[in-house]
Each structure stands twice: as structure tokens, then as C-alpha cells.
Amino acid sequence: MVPAYDFWLLDLDGTLIDVEWAYTREVFDAVGDRLGRPFSDREAEVLWHGLSGSRDRQLEAWGIEPTAFWKAFHAEEDPLVRAEQTYLHPDAAFVADLDGPVGLVTHCQRFLAEPVIDGLDIGDWFDTVVCCTEETGWKPDPAPVESAMADLGVADGSRGVLAGDGSNDVGAAWNAGLDAIHVERVGHDRRGRCVLGDYRVESFDELAAD
Questions:
Q1: Are 72 and 100 in a shared domain?
Q2: In 3D, which of 54, 49, 58, 65 has the Cα closest to residue 140?
Q3: Is the pLDDT of residue 194 over 80?
Q4: In the predicted model, is pLDDT for residue 1 greater than 60?
Q5: Which DSSP state fits 6?
Q6: Which of 123, 195, 204, 205 to pair with 98, CA 20 to 30 A apart?
Q7: Rg of the Cα atoms in the chain
Q8: Hey, how many other C-beta atoms are within 10 angstroms of the C-beta on 92?
Q9: Alpha-carbon gap, residue 106 to 103, rounded angstroms
Q10: How many domains does the chain have?
């Protein structure tokens, strides 16, 4: 059965949902045109899924100024088109049946997250949604996780967990004193490394089988 926790926090992109590859490729083509620097399929995949950890550090390693990249990236993302191209992972349905408070902590910006959540009709799964910003902090910083916990009214001593698809999610969970579930959606071979967690699964269905 799913491990018993007093509250659950979850990442969004790559954890509960994903987008069709054609949309990702189209966005990176447009961003590349804006920056005068094309992105290979591998580079697009690494950035979209955060396979190397910090996206800003990865951009800098490639000689790309992060602020300029994100300005171009967000200018090219159309919330309605992204919502249409987004699908829910079937194993994510367990979230609807969780007992206790449930929150979302995502790097996806609110102008994109809200249409996606509405389009998939999963808004009632969550008691709070925290979209990371410069003000809230970015995972693995525990600040956005702690903000979500405050929104949920989590009592001291409550046992909680954060589930996500990246090392930043695991780091944020541990930094906030929570357990971490890592769900590996892309595979260790494509990621290029293993991500540790208190639970390591390829599907949330595996938790129910424990």
C-alpha cells in the first residue's frame, strides 16, 4: 500500500504530468531562434527535465546567460497550447485518493501551471499550489516546501513526504526534513546518473505494491 504520511507534497512537471515531445521541440526551436543558438534534442531534453540538476548551472556551462534564456523561454510558451499538449501520467491518479493535506510545489510558473491544472481537471487534488519564484526560492532550497507546509497548516512533528522526478525535489524534501520519493520517468541511461531517495520507483504503482 501507499506509505502512510500525515501530508503529501508533489512536483508537477515530469512527476504527475508531461508534455508531448513535439511541443518541447517547437519551443526550443523558437527559443534558439531568439538567442541565435540552436538546441539539440539532447540539450532540450536535459533542460526540460532538469536531468543535470540546476538548469541555470547547465546553461552557464553551455555559455548561455540564464536570465536571457528564461526570458526567451517564457515568451515562447503559450499557456493554452501547453495545456492542450500536456498529459497526465496514469499512475498519478493515486493522488486523488490520498488522505490528509496534499500540496503541489513546482518550478512551473503560475501562468503555465494554472491552465494545465485546469485543463486536466486536477485542481481539487491539491489544498495548496506553490509555484517557485525568485521570492519563494527554488528547489532544492527548502523555502518553497516550507511555504507549502505553512499553507497546509502542518503541525509540528507531522510526518510528510515530497515526491518528484528530479534530484532538486529529493534535495528540497531532505532539506525540509521530509522523506523523498524519486519517480524516474526518463530512465537512468538517459539521465546519466541515479538519483537517490527514501523510495526510488519508476511508477507510483510500485508504492501500492510494497
A1: no
A2: 54
A3: no
A4: no
A5: S
A6: 195
A7: 17
A8: 20
A9: 10
A10: 2
Range scoring the smallest mean pLDDT among 1-10, 19-28, 66-75: 1-10
In 3D space, the residue among 90, 156, 86, 151 whose CA is nearest the CA of residue 119 turns out to be 86
Same domain, 136 and 76: no
109 found inside a domain? yes
The predicted pLDDT at position 52 comes to 82
Give yes or no: residues 92 and 70 share one domain.
no
Residue 2 within a domain: no
Taking alpha carbons only, the member of 77, 35, 76, 78 closest to residue 59 is 35
- Residue 162 lies in domain: 7-18+86-209
Sign of the four-CA dihedral 184, 189, 192, 194: positive
Cell numbers linked to 197: 531517495
Residue 55 lies in a domain: yes
Segment 124-147 shows an average pLDDT of 96
pLDDT of 46 higher than 70: yes
Cα angle 107, 109, 113; round to 5? 100
Residue whose C-alpha cell reads 503541525 in the numeric block: 155
Cell representation of residue 109: 510558473
Rama region for 63: left / alpha / beta (φ>0; ψ in -120 to 50; rest): left
- Compute the C-alpha angle 88/8/187, nearest 5°: 50
Q: Give domain status of residue 110, yes or no.
A: yes
> Does residue 210 register a pLDDT over 60?
no
Average pLDDT over residues 71-84: 95
